[in-house]
Amino acid sequence: MISCEKNDEKISSATGNIAGSYKLVGLTMKSSTVPEQDAMSFLFDCEKDDLYKLNADSSFQHVDAGIACEPNGTFIGNWELNGNVIRFYGETGNITKFDGTILEITTSSTISGTTYIKRSTYKKQ
User: Mind listing the pLDDT tens digit for each residue in 44-67?
Assistant: First the structure.
């Protein structure tokens, strides 16, 4: 007898699993009046190669890696995880995907009655 079993192994988004160094590999924006569009092209080249370090002790470091920005964009702070809600680098968002390598975070804000949704996709290095 042959058995086919679907293996839907999900990686927990616990602090220890999320911890690591990430690079931003995707950024999209949309609003209630504008369809989703790629926003990576709006970043400077010096921002596209930066690293986001989420350390297991809840410390955070944004490293201006590769091409240096002027002024240097290095930042140190903390990050927090509560269920699937993550806060770091001044933003709070929902983890919409985490498979151990890809971390996708969706944030939303409303300005002057228009809701903006940003999806940031990071790849663990």
Answer: 999 999 999 999 999 999 999 888
Number of structural domains found in the chain: 1
In a domain, 10, yes or no: no
Q: What is the residue-averaged pLDDT of the chain?
A: 87
Q: Which structural domain, as residue segments, surrounds residue 76? A: 15-124
- The span from the CA of 113 to the CA of 115, in Å, is 7
Tokens 């790629």, located at residue: 38
CB-based burial label for 58 (10 Å; 0-12, 13-18, 19+): middle
Our CA angle for 119, 84, 40, nearest 5°, is 15
| pLDDT-derived band at 70, boundaries 50, 70, 90 | confident
User: What does the angle CA 70 – CA 76 – CA 80 come to, to the nearest 5 degrees?
Assistant: 135
CATH number, domain with residue 81: 2.40.128.20
Which single residue is written with the structure tokens 């940003």? 118
